[in-house]
Amino acid sequence: MTANLQIPPLLPTYTPFPFPLLRGEGDRVFDPLGRDYFDFYGGHCVASTGHAHPHVAEAIAAQARELIFYSTAAELPIRSRAAQELLAFAGSGRDAGMCSVFFCNSGAEANENALKMACRVTGRHTFAAFQGGWHGRSTLALSVTDDPAITKPYEPLLAPCLRLPWNDVEALDAADFSDVAGVILEPIQSMSGIRPATAPFLRRLREKTRAAGALLIYDEVQTGIGRLGHPFAAGLHDVRPDVITSAKGLASGVPMGALLLAAEVAVSIKPGDLGSTFGGGPLACAALLATLQVIRQEGLLENVRRREQEIRGVLAGTCVTEVRGSGLLLGLVVPGRAKALKLHLQERRILVGGSGDPDVLRLMPPLNLGSAAVDALALALHSFSVGDVA
Length: 390
Hints:
By secondary structure, the chain is an alpha/beta fold. Helix content is 35%, strand content 16%.
């Protein structure tokens, strides 16, 4: 039956760029012909310290010469240090109030374990999440994800989930969380078109979950590690969640996930409740420590805030009708023309991301994005806005 089919060695997943990438440097990537592209996509919000940052690369290489891997069967000083430094970073903004870390390998695994933890702590097995939320492809993460294209084939396997409208305080007031183990949300919904949660919505959600004894889980897989110009979104708007999940830019591209836990949650978890063979491996921990050092030493939180203002400034007079989001997680609203604009930018060697909203493009560049990249984006946008576009 398959004899005449051309099946590639690497199973196709996403539709790739129409050119391969060979290497990266800072806020640019290069194809095999040596052409450079300003990377406003960041490998899908992953390249926090840019591509091939020398300090991160050397930290990984140095650790590889000492110990590439050992599981949590052994205590590793670098793993303990990574946890301490991550907690210190999280608390260096407006106190996120986290006291303990569980390391894993990805955002989906972080969210999966956060939801499992909510069940263990509360004894409940129903979740609540929001329209437009996207939390990963593992079973419990799919249960709280609002994307029928990837959830429908697995519906019989998914956990019960109360799905609520986004940013609707009245709907929160009407919701019953008495049987809910945990409520999960992205402080800025990314895949659905960069939709930030409002401060009144977050504050009311915190009140409701606390009163019902349900855990409040911030999925900061994309908003964390300085992406918004703050260490995490947790703590902003005077809202402290019970659990923060992190991944993406956590280790500058080395696969890593983490859960940051408030004391009230951490005290309920005993040895054996959670596990991950590769979670907190020495290479990933070395990359995490180097990432946090670069963010601090190079002033990347300040750079994020500065570049956001520059980007917003250069969009005046272009086809962009609205800019959503914060820091370097921005959504460009281009009604009816987003797809054409994405191709236009790609032709001018600028990479951006699409979204579930066909009118919104996403900018998720490295946190060390330079002014030359912003200038190039401005030129490309202005040439598009005055051009003859079908």
